[in-house]
C-alpha cells in the first residue's frame, strides 16, 4: 500500500496503489490526510466508523473521501490510519464500504496545517487494475 502526491497546477492530487482495491482505497485516504497535516504528529486516540456507497468504483472512491473531508470539516477529526472492514462491488459496478478511521481531534498547536481540502473531485479521476496492481488517481478541490 502506498501513495504519492501528484504535481497539478492549482490543485492537489494523489496516486494511491495497492495489491487490492481495498488497499488502494486505504492508501488514498491516508494520502489525502497527509495533504491536510503531517501524519507523524497524529495520534490514534479515537476511532470513527464511516460508510459510503457509489454507483461505480470511481463514485465510491469520491464519496468515501468526501465523507472523510466532512468529518474533518464538521468535527475536526483527522485520521492517521484507515482500515476498510467491508468493501463490496456488485456486477453492476455499484459498491459500498465501511471503514474504521483511527486518529484524533485536529489541534493547531500540535498539527501543522497543510492544504484545506474542500472535496475530492471527478476531474482526472482514475480507478484501474493493471498487472495485478490497483492504481487510483484523485484530484482535490482546494
What would you say this structure looks like, in words?
The chain has 142 residues and is α+β, with helices and mostly antiparallel strands. It has a single domain (2-141), classed as Archease, Possible Chaperone, Chain: A, domain 1 (3-Layer(bab) Sandwich). The protein is built from two helices and eight strands; from the N terminus they run ββαβαβββββ. The chain has helices at residues 21-36, 57-75, and strands at residues 2-8, 11-18, 46-54, 77-89, 95-105, 119-120, 126-130, 133-141. The longest helix is centred in the middle third of the chain and has 19 residues, at 57-75. It starts with a strand and ends with a strand. The mean pLDDT is 96.
Short summary of the structure?
The protein is of the alpha+beta class and 142 residues long. The chain is built from 2 helices and 8 strands.
Q: Summarize model confidence as the mean pLDDT.
A: 96
CATH topology: Archease, Possible Chaperone, Chain: A, domain 1
**Straight-line N-to-C gap:** 25 Å
Main sheet, how many strands, which sense, barrel? 5 strands, antiparallel
**Structural class of the secondary elements?**
alpha+beta
CATH architecture: 3-Layer(bab) Sandwich
Global outline? globular
Order of helices and strands: EEHEHEEEEE
Strand content: over 45%
* Unreliable residue stretches: none
Look at the structure and give the CATH class: Alpha Beta
Q: What level of helicity do the residues show?
A: 10-25%
Work out the helix count. Answer: 2
According to CATH, the homologous superfamily is Archease domain
Number of domains: 1
Radius of gyration: 14 Å
Care to count the β-strands? Answer: 8
